[in-house]
Amino acid sequence: MPTENEQLWAVTARQAELRAIESALTDRGGILLTGTTGVGKTRLLAAALRRVAAEGRTVVAVGGAGGPETGCAENYCSLTECLDRLESVRRHSDPARRTVVGFDDAHLVEESAAHRLYRLAASGRVAVAATAPRDAALPAGVDKLWVERLVERLEVRPFPRDLVSAILRRRVGGPVDSGTLERLWATTRGNALILHELVEYALADGSLRRVDGHWHWDGLPARPPERLADIVRLRLRDLAPEEQELVNVLALVGQVEYGLAERLGLARAAETLDGRGLVQIEYGGRRVGIRLTEPLTGAVVADRMSGLTAQRLRLQLADAIEATGARRADDVVRMATLRMAAGRVPEPAVLLAAARTAAHRRDYPLTEHLCRPLLGTPTADAPATALLPAGAPPAPPAADGPAADRDTTAATATAAPAGTLPVSAAGAAPAADRTDSAWFPADGCPEPGRALHHDVARASLLLGRALAGTGRHQEAEDVFARVFADRAADLLTALPADEVVAAVRDRADNVAWGLGRGTDAAAVVDGLPDGLGPDGTGLRHGFHAVLALLADRPDDAARAGRTVLPGEPPDSPVVQHLLPPAALALAELGQPDRALALVDRHTHDLAAWPDDARLRCLVAVARCAFAQGDLARVTATLDAIGRSDGPDDDLRRLQHALLRSRLLRLLGRPGEAVTLLRGASALPVRPDWLATPAWTLAQLAGALAEAGRPTEALQTLVEAQAARRTSPAHPQADDAVLLEHAVVLAHTGDRSGAACRALEAAQRAAARPASALAALHLAARVGDAPRAAVRAARLADGAGSDLMRLRADHVTALARSDGEALEEVSARFRTLGAVPLAAEAAAQAARAYRKDGRRRASRLARAAGTRLLTEADCPLPPWADPQEHRQPARTAPLTSREREVAALAAGGLSNRDIAARLVVSVRTVENHLYRVYEKLGITARSDLGGALQGLARHPAGTVVRAA
């Protein structure tokens, strides 16, 4: 019999495909499954044949298709032998009564057998269930089957991201942390065979393990498992020498431009590998990149590659990059890392330029790898991102702005003559190429009492930034402290003012966010040496404005903007530092119109700003536009972030995903938001004043709840709450987590709990009217409008935000149960572009009219709401659905804590694990579960998942069961 795991991977995850196969075998002449290697065609065919045989149909198999337990009447060695036996089968006009012939690898069938099969299928004697590789040349008889529509052709695709998540949770029997889900997706790309083998291997060797109640996997081991490697190599059989050479190159460096492939004589190999689906082509501006389709392939090939082959290819590729002119800063990075990996050490100027570019794109492991040789400290093997293996994120294109130009200039100004790149053999630079050891002490930091050489200063500060970026915050502070101790004058002599200011900001950020010492961070900024000009002034004002936001004093941040910015020219360094926090403070105070006007007045050439400053400003603009309800400007700002000339780094990806998902949720597309937020939650970005890991996870929980996945939402919410406990205080983010908690509770049926959380969030956000009103709006929508109405009206009074005024009017209309006012609110939400909220207000208007006995008005409002839902292609939230209010309340509702306990238990956690996650006793968990079972009328832990789904549909607390 098939094992439970085989059923899981082949059947549970492919219900839609199985239904399509059954329909084709019942209504037509059969099915032809196509797809790439490893997507699961054979397992799917076996599952389909088992189902058909279990229904009583005659099934015959060829070559053991479906396995020994398929229930086949006969199993033949060849299709010819099978067809010989089937020549006498009676013709049936009803396709559901025909004998089913199942076989794999239809592309290998002989032409004569294929024609015989076609004749039998065309005459109504047999139905066909077969598989074939995608784009394989099929025998003419098989082609005629699908061309003439005698059989359906179904492409079996890799599992989508969300399905990988569902499969994994079911396989391990518990919640899986977001980072693990993203790493598994990035490694397997949904390939069923690779996913199956990798998960089973990781479970067997313990690398996929439960940590604090969630299943966690750190990633592939240094050497891929033998069986998994063998499976990957199956796709690489019969490669021509040029194809194997290109695969080897891609395994080492991840991506190469098509122009480099041409220079290496591998352009034709790229075309043939693309035709076979082994590589994918990526277009970015004028560059065309080539990358292995499956990330795991690169790790397997690189692991088995000869060291001499790897060295030869790295040096050839470095020479090819140099021969093309190495015009971009990123080219300098690649040349340096390739030659270092091949045992050659470039001259210090090139290493420093490469390290600066790596830091600019926030590749901190690579930055450290490049800085260590400059400082004379030991360096580990090159990090994965240094050589860009196929499993790593793609190397972003180098920036074209001033920073990129400066990096390239630094590399070439002191390097060898144009067209050459001096290197030394065996990892040692010649004496003439090495900087004096006085500048590069053995411990990696300048010695006290010595003058500070500019290269040492840059390398040390870059190392500090890299250590902070990789989470080694105390090490980073030690490096920064040694550089800055008694050396302010030396720093100003050795480095330009903007570099000193950037280093101080890096140190202050590390102290504030890495070490959680905001007061010390302020002291770092206040200790800036004199003579730094507008850069130093801007950093002081901007950092103190950020600290004011984090201390929940938006008035102080806004006041700094009002006081300082009017005297500054547009786009000045002071504007770049101070404008984003000042604008966000104004938006939080209910004045997003003034915030956007401030931005427009002081940003004349945003494209010329440094990348980090431009990103912060664009994020602030998008959030102010959200607060104003200007979705058109939100969309335009998102486009600007997406096409930024800056490095495609994790921070930019995170902010773009957070803003985009917020817009998608407002437009009624939470499923798309879930996909974005899953990726965002796995990005290795340290918390800062614009985002925290807990905030990201909470938004994912809210999107999951809105997408109708309550159990996952509650589990993710617990993960977010755990992350919040380990993060520095951030009032806005913490209140946003609480508000998402209310969203999750509302969508899982706990309306009173949701209203309580929303009102609590409003109380905590007393200093931030915009956030407070958003919380009151949610509380009113889920059922507590009277308590929210008075305060909502007061907060909106004098606000410069269209959205705030609209929310307050919505709250007032709900409190008064005013149908006309609710219809007006619906129309205003529609004008705003928030169609789901417009539909919700229309449904509430229909309910208000019905309550007043105005049936005709109720029908018209309900019809208007239906049209809006059709336009948005989304359902009403459960609290606004009129069907929800007709469900009888048969038992007491679950409390918020009972829902959390039930969700974690449904996810497979033991009582002890749940107690640890929620910081309660095991006895408390047992008591909660006892009450949950009693209220829901269930007796087994396995019933909890379905019961929670029922609660999301029927908020009274009872799962309505079929009779």
Automatic annotation (TrEMBL):
Query: Which organism does this record belong to?
Result: Streptomyces calvus
Q: Does the keyword Nucleotide-binding apply?
A: yes
The entry's cellular-component GO terms read: cytoplasm
Name this protein carries in UniProt: HTH luxR-type domain-containing protein
Q: Region Disordered: start and end of each range?
A: 382-417, 873-897
| SUPFAM superfamilies for this protein | C-terminal effector domain of the bipartite response regulators, P-loop containing nucleoside triphosphate hydrolases, TPR-like
Q: Which GO terms describe its molecular function?
A: adenylate cyclase activity; ATP binding; DNA binding
Q: Residues in domain HTH luxR-type?
A: 887-952
